[in-house]
Fold this protein.
Amino acid sequence: IAYRIISGDLNICSDNSHVDHATVNNSAWRNKHLRNAVFRGVLFQNTNFTECSFHDCFFVNCSFISVNSANSTFTNTCFKHTRNYSWISESESFVNSYYDNSLIFESGQSDEPCCLHDRCETSCYDDANVDYNKVYLELFYVALATVPGCIISAIMVDVLRRSYWLSSLLVLSAGSCILLLFFKTATLAVVALIVFSFVSVGTWNTSSLITKEVYPTELRSTASGILLSVARVGAILGTLLFGLFINTHPTIPILITGSCFVVAAICSLPLPATTRKTLLE
């Protein structure tokens, strides 16, 4: 059964593993023998392969930097959109392998398709093995979690002091982010996303409500506009940071997001109480 690895110790990968957008750095792989493994968007840096074998494996959009291999073989292996920037090895180690828009060696590599060509096209590049119905269903569950989140948030803002409720939601949002670092299966990752969707929608609703209540009427619309503008800037910066750090290490953007939630929770505590109070004119 194939399983997917997105972060953590890649030494746990075995036959039929799917490794997506990860970094293998300063690692030594010895006597590792893999079959039908898929490496997609993986950066191998300062890595040593010693007496390893890769059979019927796929490397898609991967990079090899300062990699050494000794007594290791790549048999019936597909390299697609993959580049070698400093890989010390012997071309004879690559047996009946297929290279598509890839540069593994400056010379000696074959451009002729091997017996894995068709499988490489379907399994690696076109994502034909992805169950999109399952993906859309999981996203539906994540979006559906916002419904009870909104209902409970609407009730709790009149029960607790709103600044305390907002701070609590921010801490829970940070916790659901951190859970992603420890969940290694797709099911647990979806559960963490559902929890995050459930609590994070309340933070937005509560922060919008507090913004309208703490400012007098003459500043209320301006304050709300500034809140929306800062939120959009934050969304842009978040997207840029994820793209910048995701190939360095997947945990970095998650830790950044969790840290921002914690800082926001601390800053929310001193906000004035507005529950059941007359708004400022």
